[in-house]
Design a protein that fits this description.
Blueprint lengths: L1 H21 L8 H16 L18 E8 L5 E6 L4 H7 L23 E4 L2 H16 L2 E2 L5 H4 L7 H14 L16 H7 L3 E2 L2
Parallel strand pairs: 1-3, 4-5
Antiparallel strand pairs: 1-2
């Protein structure tokens, strides 16, 4: 009987010891620690949010401007200040638009402007001469009424001096009506004309 009671007593003590050793220890968080966490959160929330470009404010950049010189067949040629990334049409509008004799198809109004650029708007006559020079270059023929000295100098036997004489004659006497009229220019005779007649036209 006594032995049985002793075994029960030992078992109860063992259970009590296991329960006491296995219970997790609860560590309360102090008020000072809670305050530190809250303060850290508030600092993060007050920090400015950066945009993808690295700026803290999206609308803080100052607009940039450029200067362009507008001349030719416009109402008010001159130096104009326009916003960066503007198109040629903006420069034309700033200069008052086209003059009545302006060649309106020579300049691309949708092109972009650059700082320091000169935008020249030709007249209708200048535009037509440019087109004729382009046609002459494509066909291999030289229009003696519109060709520059450089183009005239490509003809056989025509150097810089004779090219200048050809231009001087047409400026003084008007356009050539026939290719052989070029022989009216001093220094150009039949022999030289025979070398170039297959290469010249009048238009």
């Amino acid at each position: 009987m006594l032995r049985k009671f002793y075994r029960m007593f030992v078992g109860v003590c063992a259970v009590a010891m296991v329960s006491a050793c296995g219970a997790p220890e609860m560590v309360p968080i102090g008020e000072s620690e809670v305050g530190e966490f809250a303060e850290a959160d508030s600092v993060e929330s007050d920090a400015p949010e950066e945009n993808p470009m690295g700026n803290t404010a999206l609308g803080s950049q100052t607009p940039k401007y450029i200067q362009v010189y507008v001349c030719g067949a416009v109402v008010r040629p001159g130096l104009y200040t326009v916003m960066q990334d503007s198109r040629v049409a903006v420069a034309l509008e700033a200069a008052g638009g086209f003059m009545p004799d302006a060649g309106r198809d020579s300049v691309n109004l949708a092109d972009w402007l650059k700082d320091g650029q000169m935008v020249y708007f030709p007249t209708c006559e200048e535009e037509q001469q440019t087109k004729l020079r382009t046609v002459d270059a494509q066909t291999g023929m030289v229009n003696i009424n519109t060709a520059s000295a450089e183009v005239l100098s490509t003809l056989p036997g025509i150097g810089e001096s004779k090219a200048a004489d050809i231009i001087s004659y047409r400026e003084s006497n008007g356009k050539y009506h026939r290719p052989e009229d070029i022989m009216k220019v001093p220094g150009i005779k039949e022999n030289l004309y025979a070398k170039i007649r297959e290469r010249i036209v009048v238009e």
